């Protein structure tokens, strides 16, 4: 295939990657800002030009064919190389400018990152920050963000990771509640207490604890379940019971004596704890705005 024909196919190759990543013409069209029929026409044109069937179509979704898998891999490399070229063009440490797209978990974004954002933007007025606030996993490549925050001791493999601190889950209650109902001395004592839990999943009220070689799992109950850390903190402050909080939520109230940590010698098991990782795709040329952002956070958080 000559160069002119190859160049004309590049947009269709990019659309093909988007369809595979999104799983349907409708989702791909929404992401690209075009109609599903327009996406379908581009895929048909590409299949005709390559003389292979790239996708298996059903009424509800599309899947990649065996012959399409190799094509997808090469197309993914093409898009990654294009992204590298864009990054190289913005590699100017002296005057960082342009869009910076970051995905961050909800509670961490609100309580930890937001207070740091405004001074950063004041310091770098030519950077245009776009935050994606979500507790779901974001793929930097497929979801087109420059970096993601993950709170975990097992960062995503294949991405560069920089640790910015540590988050632990802490069991807390108000002094008034403990004065009235007593302080639990062992996790099993929690069954006699009013406990605030997430309520997102059926097993959210099953709390796990570790102390040395001891492992304990307790099924708790209570009159208030809420999957919002600040609202759960407010419930604890109001004396509704014993609740689980990430350390960045609990620390200000603990410092002021408004709440007390319970069972501090026991490690609370759960997902929303571990290292604070900012992760991004490996690249020869890191955009200046991302480099400045990471350096700023390292200076402020470590």
TrEMBL record:
<keyword id="KW-0804">Transcription</keyword>
<dbReference type="InterPro" id="IPR000847">
    <property type="entry name" value="LysR_HTH_N"/>
</dbReference>
<dbReference type="GO" id="GO:0043565">
    <property type="term" value="F:sequence-specific DNA binding"/>
</dbReference>
<dbReference type="InterPro" id="IPR005119">
    <property type="entry name" value="LysR_subst-bd"/>
</dbReference>
<comment type="similarity">
    <text>Belongs to the LysR transcriptional regulatory family.</text>
</comment>
<keyword id="KW-0805">Transcription regulation</keyword>
<dbReference type="Pfam" id="PF03466">
    <property type="entry name" value="LysR_substrate"/>
</dbReference>
<dbReference type="InterPro" id="IPR036388">
    <property type="entry name" value="WH-like_DNA-bd_sf"/>
</dbReference>
<dbReference type="InterPro" id="IPR036390">
    <property type="entry name" value="WH_DNA-bd_sf"/>
</dbReference>
<keyword id="KW-0238">DNA-binding</keyword>
<dbReference type="GO" id="GO:0006351">
    <property type="term" value="P:DNA-templated transcription"/>
</dbReference>
<feature type="domain" description="HTH lysR-type">
    <location>
        <begin position="1"/>
        <end position="65"/>
    </location>
</feature>
<protein>
    <submittedName>
        <fullName>LysR family transcriptional regulator</fullName>
    </submittedName>
</protein>
<dbReference type="InterPro" id="IPR058163">
    <property type="entry name" value="LysR-type_TF_proteobact-type"/>
</dbReference>
<dbReference type="Pfam" id="PF00126">
    <property type="entry name" value="HTH_1"/>
</dbReference>
<dbReference type="GO" id="GO:0003700">
    <property type="term" value="F:DNA-binding transcription factor activity"/>
</dbReference>
């Amino acid at each position: 295939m000559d160069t002119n024909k190859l160049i004309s196919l590049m947009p269709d190759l990019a659309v093909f990657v988007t369809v595979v990543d999104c799983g349907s013409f409708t989702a791909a069209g929404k992401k690209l800002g075009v109609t599903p029929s327009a996406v379908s026409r581009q895929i048909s044109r590409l299949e005709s030009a390559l003389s292979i069937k790239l996708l298996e179509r059903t009424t509800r979704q599309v899947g990649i064919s065996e012959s399409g898998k190799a094509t997808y891999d090469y197309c993914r490399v093409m898009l990654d190389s294009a992204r590298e070229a864009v990054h190289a063009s913005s590699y100017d440490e002296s005057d960082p400018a342009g869009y910076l797209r970051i995905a961050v978990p909800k509670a961490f974004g609100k309580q930890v990152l937001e207070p740091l954002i405004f001074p950063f933007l004041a310091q770098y007025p030519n950077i245009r920050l776009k935050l994606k606030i979500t507790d779901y996993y974001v793929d930097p490549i497929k979801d087109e963000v420059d970096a993601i925050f993950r709170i975990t001791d097992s960062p995503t493999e294949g991405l560069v990771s920089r640790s910015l601190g540590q988050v632990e889950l802490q069991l807390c209650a108000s002094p008034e509640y403990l004065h009235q109902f007593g302080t639990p001395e062992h996790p099993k004592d929690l069954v006699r207490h009013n406990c605030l839990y997430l309520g997102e999943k059926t097993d959210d009220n099953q709390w796990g604890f570790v102390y040395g070689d001891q492992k304990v799992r307790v099924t708790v109950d209570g009159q208030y379940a809420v999957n919002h850390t600040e609202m759960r903190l407010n419930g604890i402050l109001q004396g509704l019971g014993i609740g689980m909080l990430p350390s960045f939520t609990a620390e200000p109230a603990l410092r002021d004596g408004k709440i007390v940590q319970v069972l501090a010698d026991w490690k609370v098991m759960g997902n929303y704890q571990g290292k604070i990782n900012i992760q991004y795709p490996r690249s020869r040329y890191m955009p200046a705005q991302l480099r400045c952002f990471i350096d700023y956070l390292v200076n402020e958080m470590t």
